[in-house]
Amino acid sequence: MRTTARRVGMALVTTLGLSSGSSAFAESLTIKGSDTMVILGQRWAENFMKKDQSTRVQITGGGSGTGISALINGTTDICQSSRAMKDKEIEQLHAKYGVNPTEIPVAKDGLSIYVHASNPVESLTMEQLKGIFTGKVKNWKDVGGPDKKIVPYSRENSSGTYVFFKEVVLEQADFTPRAQTLPGTAAVVNAVSKEKNAIGYGGAGYAKGVKLLKVKKDDKSEAIAPDLEHIVSGTYPLSRPLFFYTRQAPKDKTKAFIDWVLTPEGQSIVSQVGYFPLTKGS
């Protein structure tokens, strides 16, 4: 039987009852994982702590894989992940604690394709993206661009964004050795913004100073932009949920924080940061 994480949907389990008073002995809540989500997590934490001064929320990145390992090792209360936990990871957690983790979708993202602002290419198919990042397509002229060598940038393999891209776009094929690996999405965006022939990928919330390409499922499909309408509806080919994971059903301060994240107030912060709420009306 396939092991699965318990999923908590958008509905709040209970009504929040946050304390507005301060406490000299604030309870600590630790959140670790996805670099894609770290800024979003920080904004959630800042706003939550203004409402509940009895809780201190600590956010660190390191990648989805790092956060999942911390969840399994018991060194974080919540894991932020831009990918779903793998069966093997769920089995490891179950073997250690006797329970399956709880998966909570908290936002949506359109994994975006970044190119330099001056690049004339407007869209790429999934097959063209696969060709570029596996090394079969090496020149922009082969995908409608100038006669220039493509410079691909990628993420490190502990990144949930890396895993998602390899599974969905590369279909588990290996990245070309020419792809330069960078430690975070901000680093990818920075590199692409400076290199005219570059291409990279990452969360929509980091896309500053670069051009975002539309993506087509195939040659006959419409080119879809990574915008609110297409990401919330899932019609953008690289739409993906962003998750919280806990070792068991959330309770106490962990539950209060997650419940608040799923409120309209918490979801409005998703839009402010540059990602997408779970529903279009949030």
Question: What is the secondary structure topology, with strand pairs?
Answer:
Layout: E1 6-7, E2 27-33, H1 38-51, E3 55-60, H2 64-73, E4 78-81, H3 87-97, E5 102-110, E6 112-115, E7 123-125, H4 126-134, E8 151-155, H5 160-168, E9 180-182, H6 185-194, E10 198-202, E11 211-212, E12 214-216, H7 228-233, E13 239-246, H8 252-261, H9 264-273
Parallel strand pairs: 1-5, 2-3, 2-4, 7-12, 8-9, 8-10
Antiparallel strand pairs: 4-13, 5-13, 6-10, 6-11
Please give a handful of descriptors for the protein shown:
alpha/beta; six-stranded mixed sheet; five-stranded mixed sheet; D-Maltodextrin-Binding Protein, domain 2; 2 domains; globular; 282 residues
What does this structure look like?
This protein is an alpha/beta fold and 282 residues long. The chain has two domains: 6-108 and 241-273, D-Maltodextrin-Binding Protein, domain 2, CATH 3.40.190.10; 112-225, D-Maltodextrin-Binding Protein, domain 2 (3-Layer(aba) Sandwich). 32% of the residues lie in helices and 22% in strands. The chain has helices at 38-51, 64-73, 87-97, 126-134, 160-168, 185-194, 228-233, 252-261, 264-273; strands at 6-7, 27-33, 55-60, 78-81, 102-110, 112-115, 123-125, 151-155, 180-182, 198-202, 211-212, 214-216, 239-246. α5 links the parallel β8 and β9. α1 runs antiparallel to α9 (264-273) and α2 (64-73) runs parallel beside α3 (87-97). 44% of the residues are buried. Mean pLDDT is 90; it is low at 9-25.
CATH fold-level label of the largest domain? D-Maltodextrin-Binding Protein, domain 2
Query: Number of folding domains?
Result: 2
Q: H/E element string?
A: EEHEHEHEEEHEHEHEEEHEHH
Strand content: 15-25%
- Shape by Cα distribution: globular
Which structural class matches the secondary elements?
A: alpha/beta
Mean pLDDT: 90
CATH class of the largest domain: Alpha Beta
Share of helix, binned:
25-40%
